[in-house]
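Intended use. Records such as the DUF4082 domain-containing protein entry shown here are meant for training and evaluating sequence-to-structure methods. They are not intended to support clinical decisions.
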Amino acid sequence: MAALIVALVGVSVPVAWVVTHNGEVTVTPAAAGRPAAAEEPEQPQETSLWSSEEAVKAPTHTDRSPVELGTRFTAAKSGTVTGVRFYKARGEKGRHTGSLWDARGRRLAQVTFPKETASGWQEAHFASPVRLRAGQVYTVSYHSTNGTYVGSPGAGSATSGPLSTTSRNAGVFGYGTSAFPRRSNPKGYNYWVDVIFRWHERHPRSTTPRPTYTRWPTASPTWTRRPTGEPTHWPTGRPTNRPTDLPTDLPTDLPTYEPTPTVTATWTPTRRPTHWPTWTPTRRPTGKPTASPTWTAWPTPTKSPTGTAWPTPTKSPTGTAWPTPTKSPTGTAWPTPTKSPTGTAWPTPTKSPTGTAEPTPTKSPRPTHTPEPTRPQEPGDRTCDGYPTPDCTGVPPGTKLTTMRLNEGRSYRVTTAGAVLDGVHIPGDLLITANNVTVMNSQIDGMVINEFGPNTYSFKIYDSTVGPESGCQTLPGIGESKFTAERVLIRNHGDGFRASGDNIVIRDSFVRLCSNPGDHSDGIQTYRTGKGLVFDHNTVDQRGAKDITAPIFLTDPKIVDAVVTNNLVMGGTYSIQLKNARGTLIVQGNQIVDKSWKYGPVEADCDKISWKDNSIVTIDGDYNVTSVVKPLHCAE
């Protein structure tokens, strides 16, 4: 049945209808109306985001904690915001405040909602309208102290008149006291927070001469108190004799800001010398021979080198590939092994290699099919005897941590490029807004996020623990793109890693997942992922979560090239899901714990994937594989 009908105030302002029935929400935006032909051609027009022709499900979520919920939007025309609206869930209690924010997180206006109804659309008007610039990103939000709200996953973009939601991460939120909401759920939630926007349609000027007094009539006491420039907001008691042609001049008074990338692209070529390609050779002495020195070809000497890096064998090598000498070298760089190497950097293959320079092994602790090259040693490099566990990931034992004071709401924000955080404790989120940041030997109680506005920033994180000691946070532990994570322990998060862009490498890490009602828990989830995802030698335990999708959930159609190798996973509706992706897709050497899934071990586009040596296993309480049940085929 109809729950609420709202009429937007104004002579030329159309009507918005809101009807709820069995959890469905139907909204008619003010933009649906059209001014009558006899109306002034420059009367203000008003709209909100949601279309009355679209019926959407709006499930109720109960987080039981204070939360700020919002929508990020832009306007194609300059105008003013007069107020905020939100859809109130059934069972939600308490008073609510609405806010408008700019892209930098500065609050532009705030209002308390008056005379709220039990549920449905609520509306409040700011004391003064707030002027917006065309093309800029803004956020409209409301704060709930009770934490009961409606949210629709998988919401697409919304457009009404000059208004539209941002192309990605339009629905945002933040827990705690009222503050700028910058987090977004990887499921693409819409939290049904709306804005009331007014603008003027611009028409060609009339050719009829206008009297000189039409610019700013000094006889009106209302306008003589204003500065000569355009006021930042319209008073509700605007004089009726104000000239109707005035709005056509207003946008030209506003400064125009060019985005940084455009300036950089124009400036760089003009500063670069036009003779650059020929400049370098002219600096080279003309008398210097252009041929390569004889040492670059490294001819075979008649005698063996005596340097420590090249021990002298008993006989000089005769082949360019250095065949096995009759006797072992005695130099320190070429020890003579009597058995197969046992170091972690030289895993023993299951079968003897055919090369003459390597002895035949007896057993194989690790597969030989890993497609990735040997990775370089990184700061604090540690290894696990088998698959990663809490004992060999996270903050190393005995590390002394220094607690950092939060400097951005509930976050610690890094703004210096190349910054290194070593041995720190962050009692909230870590927000990275500079490139080439390194985090190591540290504990972050919230999440690690490198997205701020439309930008993401590169970082690396090693030997660190992410997540609170208790409870469960719905958000992913680490995201969004351009990051490397090694030997990271993620705990008490609904999602482990969020992959939302290019160049993501995750290795040797351990993830133990939880869930809140309404979550769709994932060990790693792709959301608008790009190229170069590597997920290698990780352990993902989802057995303790109830509201689940998959430990490995890669279903984004934007995925290009993905490597999923040598992982131990357990739990999920399906334990491994890889669909809709393109390019080189490798799933190899992974082991799935027997009968830990709900529907099946794998769901994948098998004809597109290089699938090899995956198996179903049993494990003990320390994540050691106790038996191989059977090989895992992609089509199972």
